[in-house]
């Protein structure tokens, strides 16, 4: 049935392939430059990062990472000389700039908040989403299409518009600036994606498996647990990664509804400042650490990407 | 493509087992499975929405919770529709949405059309191209401020290297006429891969035999492109435009960090105005009314568009 392109009369010619390949590679290289620049900047010293012309070759340094994880205070050289020997690499670098480490920065707690909120909300969204998707996929639910559309439509509201009443509601309930509040909110946002994606995945599992299991004496619930869930694992994993990426990247709600104890990394990273403005190597270091998990996930998700970004509307 | 077929098959299948109920009935189970999601959405989305509708008819200010709340009727809505600043924000949003969608569709479709040639290594390079769209718009948008710095930024340096204009004069974020383009460039950089990926699915859905038939009829490449490739990929392009349109109409994170709406209010898109009114001026009632208007606008436009999309698909 399927014709291999080599035998096809309409296969693109070798020249057109070469031209297309060259353009795509050029575009890919140019579009990846900002990311490489973030990565490179994270290993520059502050003076190197703001040099003109921008330095492409430089002496790599971990100063940005030191500055990301610490807060520092400026001291007189006499005071610094009066201290004992430097205790580590970061201590030594800081002293060279006539400063001493005053303590850990807020980056670690913010990063941990991001982890807790992203994983917590992903777990809840996928759990609720799997149940609902199975319900919509296998049972005759009255007004199913309307309910599904309602679930999707909650995604169309501008986040700031939702944030105004949520802000007031959380203030009344004492959920402002708490991880629980953010987990609830992200679960609500992600559950629409989870239901839509998972319904697609579960629709693809033949009902005969469950029916056979039920004939063997399983109840519907057992059949769901023992036959459907194991088959939907790939779909559930892909959905979970999409929810995780959303919650990890989310900024608008986090910036408006958290300020301290529950603040996540995205609103925190832009506030990293050094003396006389933004400490770009530290910002780049924070950005790099923040982006690496997403890069890994993108590669894992390659095959499911299309489905995820279109709410399951386009499948291959 | 839109998987209605699976649904209709599922509905047409009789349920012989539905009668053999063991444990919880199917109907009970269905509600048990669906209701937690619906309840959560009612609590976190719908209840606040109704609260916002109520607030939009009042003069409530969130920073003065003890003040007596007065019902002001439609006054907030009237003031918004007569407010010059709101109309400027809507124009800024329209400018942003129009240019980002135009650029992303043109570049995204072209890239997909080239990748569809399946040259050696196309899968690897496609993955590389897809990376920007997966990243946090806030965190990456923040970093673009550094790239846009007139003297030390890489973007300004590259432009001055190519054009010969001194790098100090390329103030993408400070120049009133360049700032709207600074956000368009970043958005296009981030989201062109998104449009590309959907277009690629569209191109790959075109069966090869149609081209073979056209080849037999000696249709030129140009003709094949306009009468086969483009019309058949159109529903996919329109779907990409729909998703990008909704997203960019709501755009907040990247713009807030990159320009914060400035210089002045040249890049103040609707969401930024909303944030300034709601969380800086604390005009909660007024901004709730604006939020409702925005929501109705997105919802209405999306509905009209989906109808058009369905017509195109049925052709």
UniProtKB/TrEMBL annotation, chain A:
Q: Which family does it belong to?
A: Belongs to the binding-protein-dependent transport system permease family.
Q: Residue ranges of the ABC transmembrane type-1 domain? A: 111-301
Where in or outside the cell? Cell membrane
Task: List GO terms (cellular component aspect).
Answer: plasma membrane
In terms of PANTHER family, this protein maps to: ABC TRANSPORTER PERMEASE PROTEIN, MALTOSE TRANSPORT SYSTEM PERMEASE-RELATED
Chief subcellular location:
membrane
Q: What is this protein called?
A: Sugar ABC transporter permease
List the lineage, top down: Bacteria, Pseudomonadati, Pseudomonadota, Alphaproteobacteria, Hyphomicrobiales
Automatic annotation (TrEMBL), chain B:
Give the record's family classification: Belongs to the binding-protein-dependent transport system permease family.
What is the protein name given in its UniProt record? ABC transporter permease
**Residue intervals passing through the bilayer:** 29-54, 96-115, 122-144, 181-203, 224-246, 286-306
Write down the Gene3D superfamilies for this protein, in alphabetical order: MalF N-terminal region-like, MetI-like
User: What's the main place this protein lives?
Assistant: membrane
Compartments where located = Cell membrane
Domain of life of the organism encoding this protein: Bacteria
Membrane-topology annotation of the record: Multi-pass membrane protein
Identify the residues that the record assigns to the ABC transmembrane type-1 domain, covering every copy.
Answer: 90-305
One cellular-component annotation, GO: plasma membrane
Coiled-coil portions: none
What PANTHER family does its record include? GLUCOSE IMPORT SYSTEM PERMEASE PROTEIN GLCT, TREHALOSE TRANSPORT SYSTEM PERMEASE PROTEIN SUGA
Biological process, per Gene Ontology: transmembrane transport
Q: Quote the InterPro entries the UniProt record gives.
A: MalF_N, MetI-like, MetI-like_sf, Sugar_ABC_transporter
Q: Which UniProt keywords apply?
A: Membrane, Transmembrane, Transmembrane helix, Transport
